[in-house]
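Morning!

This is the sequence you dropped in the shared folder:
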Amino acid sequence: MASSDKHRQKADAAADKHREIQREQDTRDQRAAAKGEQKQQKEKKPVQAGARGQPGELPAQHLEKPGLEADLQLQPQFMAPDYKGSGKLQDMVALITGGDSGIGRAVAVLYAREGADVAIVYLPDEQADAEETRRCVEAEGRGCLLIAGDVKDPAFCKEAVEKTVREFGKLDILVNNAAFQEHAMSLEDLSEERFDETMRTNIYGYFHMAKAALPHLKKGASIINTGSVVGLRGSPKLLDYSTTKGAIHAFTKSLAHNLIDKGIRVNAVAPGPVWTPLNPADQPADKVAQFGKDTDFKRAAQPEELSPAYVFLAAPVCAGYITGLVLPVTGSISAS
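The structure's back. Tokens below.
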């Protein structure tokens, strides 16, 4: 047999083998499609990997802005009952913007459990939530100062810092966490007014607070900014919000460089979807019910699953050699 015929036979055999492999895979695909719905349900089962089980399903609920935690049908889990304090922040003082609810409230509670006094900044309409946060902080045996105002106003930010220092004598930790979010289906739907409101709240507010706090921060102090997974990968319907979160990440790294010689650390946490009033006060009810299901955990986080990261970054005993970090706590493996 000529060598060309041998090559042809081998090629034909290879093609036959490819088709055989294809048929086998086609059969598998058809079987998978036949029970696709069952498989899909299995794949979407919420993952539980923490100290206690967390809600896997969220209510289809839409809130009027600014969104009160007290009005959520499913109350966020923020008390972290399995977290045991060990004095990591003993006698330190923290100022938390957006501290009335959500991540901010959860952070305030754990900071108090670790021995810190806490001041929280919030909008006047969020007074009821702020009062509950104060109750929880005081139940941990620490003081809690409530300061209502708008972080877009640099004069207010300066006043908030000064009130905190007058009340507690110093400032060791600034947590920039206040945020505004409202989705838009397209760039054409995003008005300059809305874009400006998001920028001024989410990035100007962080700038104003950091600038006001800096004269009071000493060696060993820290600034922690709340970024977002959408600042890492973008979001088609949160164009302005994602832009601010990306800016926060860059601001964090740049300020870390700027302050390292002073012994002041600057880091950020980039949360994935977290069950707080922020999303129900933005998305339609049907979208809220699906919130977080596209993560690898197939569910949204609860605030108590984020707050230990803020303790870690604030505590000199834990993160004294860490600055400029954007720590992703996203519920997904490839978010960063």
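Headline: The CA atoms of residues 135 and 144 lie 8 Å apart.

More detail when I'm at my desk.
O.
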